Fold this protein.
Amino acid sequence: MIKDLAAREDGPVRVSGWVEKVRDQRYVQFVVLRDESGAVQLVNGGVLREPDPENPRSDILLDRTSTIAELTHGTFITVTGELQHNERVKLGGVEIQIETIEVVARALPDNPVAADSGLDVRMDWRFLDLRRPEQNLVFRVQTTFLNALRQVWIEHDFIEVQTPKLMASASESRAELFEVEYFEGQAFLAQSPQFFKQMAQAAGFGGIFEVGPAFRADPSFTSRHATEFTSVDAELSWIDSHEDVMELHEELIVAGLAAVKEKHGEAIQKLFGIEIEVPTRPFPRIPLAEAKEIVKERGYEVPRADADMDPEGERRIAAYVKEKYGHDFVFLTDYAWSIRPFYHMRHEGDGALTKSYDLIYNGTEISTGAQREHRIEVLEAQAIEKGMDPKELGFYLDFFRYGVPPHGGFGMGLNRVLMLMLGQSSIRETTYLFRGPNRLLP
Ligand code: AMO
């Protein structure tokens, strides 16, 4: 790999990669070659434009010169040559004197993506867009982040599950639900693994996690919504309250960011100009009603008829937390029952509030979590209160009829986490292939 060249001694090497740039000068040709690990300068010092009867290697040199002159951006080549360390070469301090060059796969000359192409064009040609080092880094960071989370779960003896994405009923609410034909009938795409995460608690699995797709028929075109996204979910038994869920959540975030900082901190600084901050624990916690008061005192009244926060309010409370505690994360807790799903547990003695939270990262919601209602009579009553049909929920309610421990969990949008971590302006940048109301291709 190109990244390994600097550590090698001078001598013969063989590299492959994509042509990034060609500088075809009269007496010397330069090629910048890139693979997924980095870029290196190739040099052809033996440029020959006309046959030279005196030179026994005339044919070889002519051929090499014309091959290089005709290279198009993005063409995949394999080169053999001599590696030379040279301090004056800005690109990594090494270059390769080309001996042979093989065009493995030619790229069309009209590269559809330019440095100034808009996001839509880049998404049309996502495979070319992903060749850019920044984009490559996003998915390396994602891999490292998820691996760190996975290690925490495994240390805590959690079980990984893969829940079905085809369902007979809605998994969150009737809103934002994709319907699909299913033989003679109909099915729905899972909006969340919610019900099946809870089933694992009834099944005695204790702690479980899943990283998988979630679907929302959300027609909005914001920078943080997709119709399909990757949901990072966990659910655990034997909790006393949502506080236990938040503790696990914090532990995961800290482990994820620490691993990302250690492995990619330098590259992230270089390519995105961002210093990854590993948050301290505990993360600040503010009850939602108090958070709304705080932003109101600071001049912003959340313009909503219900008790919820809005994105601007989230940004403002995050700014307050950053000022006051120097923290990028804040748990907003104790959401009103009126704005939470039927399965959230209400506070003893104050049924107006739930044992739930949202986690805000750099001003945007990344997660919802809660202790769940596990007492069947209460759960059933709550479903009815929310206008749901207990018959349609029959299979789910059955989980609670045969003994289920107190439990809770959270769902976290992976693409949003990456967007906020890497200071990107859109979830499209941090989704391998974005899906939105008007995007199903490629
Ligand atoms: P919620 O609906 O809040 O909760 O979703 C959890 C997290 O998923 C992400 N998310 C999205 N990301 C991109 N595009 C979307 N359209 C989108 N919708 C949601 C967000 C959000 O915070 N079952 C509960 C979780 C739980 O309680 O365990 C749920 O789905 O980051």
